[in-house]
């Protein structure tokens, strides 16, 4: 027999044997009181095969192994492993008796599940999401799963091309706190300066953590600064790392976009390859383990520049950056005794990127024809290293549980330029430069105590703790030729991104001390009251006290009411306080040198711009959860968020007006610095957000398979209530924070995003069909003329098939019908392309295939 025929025969034999061995497993999952556990996860051990319980706690699963073992888990309960059979009943015990208890973000009570939380919490099972969708990184996964979460890839946005900004409930990227295993994650060192989202904000880079290392993501859609500290104005995202042992999972994924608006005959671009492996090792019988993940992702450029404008092409190269991303993440626990254990987790991420800058055409005075006779397209490169490490001890002290930990994180971002020049050096200019960069580091020491009093009414949980945090920020200069002008009659510095100058460089640090107390009291089995108070003191702006009160009442078995009221704050990031740079911006297609002056610079002091202080917020959330029949559930939450003294990046002040008249206040100073415009960070505005979150779930048996349907929506209205000027700029509100900049803030999220998903599983086959409607977005061009991006509905379709009990193949498409945002003249957009980075992105249809392997002992 020829060897080439052997593999199909082996696969056929394996499939046949599997089909003969397959049996249908049925059962019901209940809690200790005999009540059905809704949404419990039931997985056939060592395979990709799994399901969830319906509204009656029941499940049906077609086995893929001859002697199936089932792993049953649910938030707030102890995971159990049982032998699979028909008509099985599994009783889950509450996990509150163990230090390994699952803790849902938004509560420090270890017996609080997501279903009885007084605040709205989304739980996203990463395993099920990644198995059936084409998105590979965390930002894009959440963008198409969680309606209140928004993230777009940027292009033509300098550093934001390499670090995707993300927002929750339409607020800024820095107004959402990110935790990993309940510990504060450090932010990126990048300040977003361009693009349609996150302008002037710093944020947390979610993509440094590979999806393969994550068990689930919890999104608390509620203000929580009183519980967790600064940044939690819009909510909290808690990333929970995997704890599985003796199980090997691996996957390989590849996808590409069907090219459009290209000048060549290429059919596909933006190829995206990802490979990862995860394995956990159990150590002894006390739950000790080490779980490790390796992940590699490489994404190629997309090219979307071939949209002509009335004045010709604004750019010859326009599209997603090329990015190479490698990660190593670890999660571990080491038992010291039955009452104490040490935990260690963290990881290392290395990213390199190439992003297109604006084209310098052949006749541009910033070009040197001897080097580039046809002009050139600068490439901005990035070299980003992100590292984190958390170590701690959890132990019992009598009836109290003590958690002591130290958390260190670092993010370093270095800029480079290639395919460029310094025009002031003429034909002798280099074509590649090191442009400098920045680094942010954070070290957090925390101590927390929790205790549950079961005999106080129906249960009282008390928690208290202290937290000390030190942050460091450093901005370092590039090589001299990247910023220096060697010829006064020419433009100096590397084209595409002038290097940071020695005068920009700075080292800064600050200290923070926080202390909190919170409590949750079950007055009756139906009524829960909760409250939290937190004190914070920052070495650079002083102290603040915040509080939160919440309640939840079970009206009937099928209806629960809940509500919260809280105050919050966000400290301005060290980057916002200390960033300083001179860069090139394109306004109506013309290059202009812009100074972004740090908060305490001579320019800002002369203008009377005050020292940055914390943002403060007031928020309220009122909603209900309901089970409508045996297989239908509904949650509705309305919210109000008022943010005062919001830190924004101001509009750019011009040295001269349209009639070439020198500005009497700032003009002479700007021209002396060699720049045409200047911007600043300031507590310049107050905003108010009103919104509604709706989630409707339904489960049904269709034929011999199971259909899960979800309708999830976010409706959000953000208004800018006032613009606050100061000093010699008083009365110049439109110059200080004008309509165009206000439109970018409002465009942090569309007014609504609606997600409708159908997930059908039958035998070895699975199908996911998803529709996402992104509402219209309104921006303004450089002349404040409206740019209305129409609403769009994207369609995703995935079909999966289990080739063997351990190997699954999925193929599909995101944005199946190849939709793009509304097209505009590239001269009018922020990015120089036919659209700004809004809504679902601007790359069109994405086709993908993925293989997933899972096996356990």
Automatic annotation (TrEMBL):
Membrane topology: Multi-pass membrane protein
One Pfam family in the UniProt entry: TonB_dep_Rec_b-barrel
Compartments where located: Cell outer membrane
Keywords for the protein's UniProt record, in alphabetical order: Cell outer membrane, Membrane, Receptor, Signal, TonB box, Transmembrane, Transmembrane beta strand, Transport
Positions of the TonB-dependent receptor plug domain: 114-236
Signal sequence annotation: 1-21
CDD domains: ligand_gated_channel
Coiled-coil region: none
Keyword hit for Transmembrane: yes
Domain TonB-dependent receptor-like beta-barrel: start-end pairs: 349-816
Superkingdom per UniProt: Bacteria
Main location: membrane
Entry similarity comment: Belongs to the TonB-dependent receptor family.
UniProt name for this protein: TonB-dependent receptor
Lineage, top ranks: Bacteria, Pseudomonadati, Bacteroidota, Cytophagia, Cytophagales
């Amino acid at each position: 027999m020829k060897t080439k025929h052997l593999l199909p025969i082996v696969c056929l034999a394996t499939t046949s044997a599997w089909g003969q061995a397959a049996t249908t497993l049925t059962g019901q999952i209940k809690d200790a009181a005999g009540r059905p556990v809704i949404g419990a996860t039931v997985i056939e051990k060592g395979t990709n095969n799994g399901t969830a319980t319906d509204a009656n706690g029941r499940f049906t699963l077609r086995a893929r192994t001859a002697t199936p073992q089932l792993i049953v888990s649910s938030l707030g309960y102890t995971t159990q492993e049982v032998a699979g059979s028909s008509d099985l009943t599994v009783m889950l015990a509450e996990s509150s008796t163990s230090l390994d208890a699952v803790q849902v973000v938004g509560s420090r009570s270890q017996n609080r599940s997501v279903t009885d939380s007084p605040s709205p919490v989304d739980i996203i099972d990463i395993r099920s999401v990644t198995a059936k969708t084409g998105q590979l990184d965390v930002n894009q996964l959440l963008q198409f799963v969680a309606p209140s979460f928004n993230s777009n890839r940027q292009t033509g946005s300098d550093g934001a091309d390499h670090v995707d900004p993300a927002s929750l409930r339409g607020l800024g990227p820095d107004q959402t706190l990110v935790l990993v295993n309940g510990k504060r994650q450090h932010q990126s060192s990048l300040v977003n300066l361009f693009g349609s989202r996150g302008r002037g904000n710093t944020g947390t880079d979610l993509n440094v953590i590979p999806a393969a290392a994550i068990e689930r993501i919890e999104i608390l859609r509620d203000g929580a600064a009183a519980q967790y500290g600064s940044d939690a104005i819009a909510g909290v995202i808690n990333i929970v790392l995997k704890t599985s042992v003796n199980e090997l999972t691996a996957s390989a994924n590849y996808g590409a976009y069907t090219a459009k608006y290209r000048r060549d005959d290429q059919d596909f671009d933006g190829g995206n390859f990802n490979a990862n492996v995860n394995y956990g090792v159990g150590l002894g019988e006390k739950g000790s383990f080490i779980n490790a993940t390796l992940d590699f992702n490489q994404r190629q450029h997309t090219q979307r520049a071939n949209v002509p404008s009335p004045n010709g092409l604004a750019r010859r190269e326009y599209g997603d950056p090329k990015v190479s991303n490698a990660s190593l993440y670890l999660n571990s626990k080491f038992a010291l005794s039955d009452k104490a254990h040490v935990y260690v987790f963290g990881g290392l991420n290395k990213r390199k990127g190439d992003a297109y800058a604006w084209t310098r055409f052949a006749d541009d005075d910033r070009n040197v024809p001897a080097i580039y006779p046809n002009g050139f397209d600068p490439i901005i490169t990035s070299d980003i290293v992100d590292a984190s490490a958390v170590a701690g001890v959890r132990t019992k002290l009598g009836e109290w549980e003590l958690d002591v930990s130290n958390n260190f994180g670092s993010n370093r971002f270095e800029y480079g330029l290639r395919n460029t020049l310094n025009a002031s050096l003429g034909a002798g200019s280099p074509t590649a430069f090191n442009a400098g960069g920045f680094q942010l580091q954070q070290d957090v020491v925390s101590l927390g105590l929790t205790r549950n009093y079961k005999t106080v009414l129906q249960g009282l949980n008390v928690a208290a703790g202290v937290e000390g945090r030190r942050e460091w920020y450093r901005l370092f200069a590039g090589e001299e030729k990247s910023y220096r002008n060697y010829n006064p009659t020419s433009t100096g510095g590397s084209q595409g991104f002038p290097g940071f100058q020695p005068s920009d460089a700075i080292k800064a640090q600050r200290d923070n001390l926080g202390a909190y107390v919170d409590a949750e009291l079950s007055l009756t089995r139906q009524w829960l009251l909760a409250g939290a108070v937190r004190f914070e003191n920052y070495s650079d702006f002083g102290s603040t006290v915040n509080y939160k009160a919440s309640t939840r009442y079970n009206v009937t078995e099928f209806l629960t009411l809940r509500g919260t009221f809280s105050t919050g704050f966000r400290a301005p990031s060290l980057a916002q306080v200390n960033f300083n740079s001179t860069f090139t911006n394109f306004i109506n297609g013309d290059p202009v040198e812009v100074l972004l002056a740090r908060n305490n610079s001579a320019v800002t002091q002369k203008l009377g711009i005050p020292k940055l202080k914390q943002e403060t917020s007031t928020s309220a959330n009122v909603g209900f959860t309901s089970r409508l029949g045996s297989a239908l559930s509904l949650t509705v939450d309305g919210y109000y968020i008022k943010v005062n003294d919001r830190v924004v990046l101001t509009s750019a002040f011009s040295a001269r007006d349209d009639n070439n008249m020198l500005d009497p206040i700032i003009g002479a100073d700007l021209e002396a610095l060699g720049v045409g415009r200047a911007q600043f960070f300031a507590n310049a505005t107050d905003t108010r957000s009103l919104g509604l979150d709706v989630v409707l779930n339904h489960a049904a048996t269709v034929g011999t398979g199971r259909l899960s349907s979800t309708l999830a929506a976010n409706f959000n209205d953000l208004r800018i209530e006032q613009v606050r000027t100061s000093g010699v700029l008083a009365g110049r509100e439109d110059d200080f924070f004008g309509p165009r900049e206000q439109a970018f803030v409002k465009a942090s999220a569309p007014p609504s995003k609606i997600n409708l998903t159908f997930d059908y599983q039958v035998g070895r086959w699975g199908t996911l069909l998803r529709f996402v409607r992104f509402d219209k977005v309104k921006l303004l061009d450089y002349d404040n003329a409206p740019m209305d991006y129409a609403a769009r509905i994207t369609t995703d379709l995935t079909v999966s098939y289990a080739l063997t009990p351990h190997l699954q193949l999925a193929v599909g498409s995101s944005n199946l019908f190849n939709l793009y945002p509304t097209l505009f003249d590239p001269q009018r957009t922020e990015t120089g392309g036919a659209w700004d980075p809004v809504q679902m992105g601007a790359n069109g249809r994405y086709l993908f295939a993925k293989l997933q392997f899972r096996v356990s002992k």
